[in-house]
Write a structure and sequence with these properties.
about 160 residues, alpha+beta, 7 strands
């Protein structure tokens, strides 16, 4: 089940923070860069971030995945965070979270997401959902961050 997560729900945001720490530590190892911004978050900074969070709750009522989005300009939405508990990798959790965002933001024309180029599972996941790489930049020696866009075309007739 996917549900909205209120930034004001401190207990649930603590679960998000724990999940985020676990997931982004693994990404940091994978890409060889340990200054990933989500690893610097506190519960307070998460609650003040202004992003919209959706959580994947399993049958045991455990938070096993989460995605966050933010609107930077009209017509676009940035996926700012994606995290899945390591015990639930390769079970479709991230894909269901992405599909939830795509389905529940039908007015959005452009979706944006960035990930480390060495994070092959994330790169493959975003490409599976139609995201295309548009820019790669080096954020540290031997660490490249790639930005992907998914553009939706609408029939304006």
């Amino acid at each position: 089940m996917i549900m909205n997560i209120s930034l004001q729900d401190r207990d649930l945001m603590l679960e998000v923070w724990r999940l985020q720490q676990m997931a982004y530590r693994l990404e940091a190892e994978l890409i060889g860069f340990h200054d990933i911004p989500p690893l610097l978050d506190t519960i307070d900074s998460l609650q003040e971030c202004g992003e919209t969070f959706y959580g994947y709750i399993n049958e045991n009522m455990e938070l096993i995945g989460a995605i966050a989005v933010e609107q930077e300009w009209e017509g676009s939405l940035t996926i700012s965070r994606m995290m899945v508990h390591p015990n639930h990798f390769r079970k479709g959790v991230a894909g269901k979270l992405i599909q939830h965002v795509l389905d529940h933001h039908s007015e959005v024309q452009k979706f944006i997401v960035s990930t480390g180029m060495k994070n092959t599972p994330a790169v493959m996941l975003y490409q599976k959902y139609g995201f295309e790489p548009v820019q790669t930049c080096e954020i540290a020696p031997n660490v490249e961050l790639t930005t992907f866009h998914l553009n939706r075309m609408y029939d304006r007739s």
